[in-house]
């Protein structure tokens, strides 16, 4: 029996839980408790890596300077440039790059969600250098607030 098993066993013994049980039953109970505690720790220690950001998001500036809506949620009006982010579950993102001669193009990068700051880091695929930092707030299932952090 390892040290952790021994500590739990002694704790249960002091409380009188183990008084009328056979050794095999005690060990079964002990294993069950360890399994439950392990599952509980895993459940509470895991952070959400990619919240409800996965999908294509288009800047809906008619509704506010920071508002983004799902690409398929509506027909967006004509615009010289309308930012688009397409976050994929595999950790890649396609995003629209503003070109000075209106030759805008989609570029691919990696993305990482930093939950304690509500930020998305968009990184170069090859160098892992941060290209953009975005502050993201999920307003509802169909709407995000995205602000580029300079």
Description:
It is built from 2 helices and 8 strands, in the order ααββββββββ. Strands 1-2-8-7-6-5-4-3 form an 8-stranded antiparallel barrel. The protein is α+β, with helices and mostly antiparallel strands. The protein has helices at 3-14, 23-45; strands at residues 55-59, 67-70, 84-87, 92-97, 105-114, 119-123, 130-140, 143-149. It starts with a helix and ends with a strand. A hairpin with a 7-residue loop joins strand 4 (92-97) and strand 5. This is Lipocalin-like domain-containing protein.
SSE blueprint and pairings:
Blueprint: H1 3-14, H2 23-45, E1 55-59, E2 67-70, E3 84-87, E4 92-97, E5 105-114, E6 119-123, E7 130-140, E8 143-149
Antiparallel strand pairs: 1-2, 1-3, 2-8, 3-4, 4-5, 5-6, 6-7, 7-8
In short:
This is Lipocalin-like domain-containing protein. With 150 residues, the chain is an alpha+beta fold.
Provide key terms for this protein:
2 domains; Lipocalin; alpha+beta; elongated; Lipocalin-like domain-containing protein; eight-stranded antiparallel beta barrel; 23% helix
Write out the strand line-up for the largest beta sheet, numbering strands in chain order: 1-2-8-7-6-5-4-3
Radius of gyration: 25 Å
Structural class: alpha+beta
- Strand residue content: 25-35%
Q: Label the CATH architecture of the largest domain.
A: Beta Barrel
Helix proportion of residues, in percent? 10-25%
**Helix/strand order, N-terminal first:** HHEEEEEEEE
Q: Mean pLDDT, rounded to whole units?
A: 81
**Total individual domains:** 2
Biggest sheet statistics: 8 strands, antiparallel, barrel
Counting H and I runs of at least 4 residues, what is the number of helices?
2
Please report the total strand number as a whole number. 8
CATH C-level category of the largest domain: Mainly Beta
């Amino acid at each position: 029996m390892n040290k952790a098993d021994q500590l739990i066993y002694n704790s249960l013994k002091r409380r009188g839980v183990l008084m009328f049980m056979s050794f095999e039953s005690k060990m079964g109970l002990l294993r069950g408790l360890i399994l439950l505690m392990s599952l509980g720790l895993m459940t509470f220690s895991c952070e959400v890596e990619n919240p409800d950001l996965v999908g294509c998001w288009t800047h809906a500036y008619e509704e506010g300077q920071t508002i983004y809506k799902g690409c398929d949620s509506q027909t967006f009006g004509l615009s010289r440039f309308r930012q688009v982010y397409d976050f994929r579950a595999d950790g890649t993102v396609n995003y629209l790059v503003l070109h000075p001669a209106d030759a805008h193009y989609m570029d691919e990068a990696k993305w990482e969600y930093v939950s304690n700051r509500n930020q998305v880091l968009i990184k170069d695929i090859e160098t892992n250098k941060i290209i953009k930092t975005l502050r993201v707030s999920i307003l509802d299932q169909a709407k995000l607030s995205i602000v580029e952090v300079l």
